[in-house]
Amino acid sequence: MDQPTEQVYSIPAPYRRMENMHILFWLLKDIGWCIIWKPLALSMIIPTLSIALIITWRTRTIKAELAHNLAIVFWISANSYWMISEFFNFEAVRVWGNVTGKHMALLPFLLGLFTLLYYYLVQKPREARLEPVATI
């Protein structure tokens, strides 16, 4: 009897090393934010976001990876904007009504959320319907 085969996703070693560096940069950015060390935190935005974009580009042909990596790009963008709003004291400045500078970080956060909602509610069910059905 044939065993069902599952699709395997493997990451080449250079890509894995880049992902590991991404985690290091992200942690350094957030540690800099936490201890209010602006030079460290601000200098880590570009490498963290750049690697997230490269990872997203490299995984663009795999829908699940693309959705999740796009959500990460939006998350890092929102997180970085929020940090900048605190560092430069515009987090409490009213932009419109009760919306403050910090609340503007909701835009990329929501883009990430909607990306994942689309994937799980539309794309993934569509892929499941298109998968070949095993016959006996």
Automatic annotation (TrEMBL):
Entry keywords, A to Z: Membrane, Transmembrane, Transmembrane helix
Transmembrane region(s): 35-54, 66-84, 104-122
Protein name: Uncharacterized protein
Provenance organism: Hymenobacter roseosalivarius DSM 11622
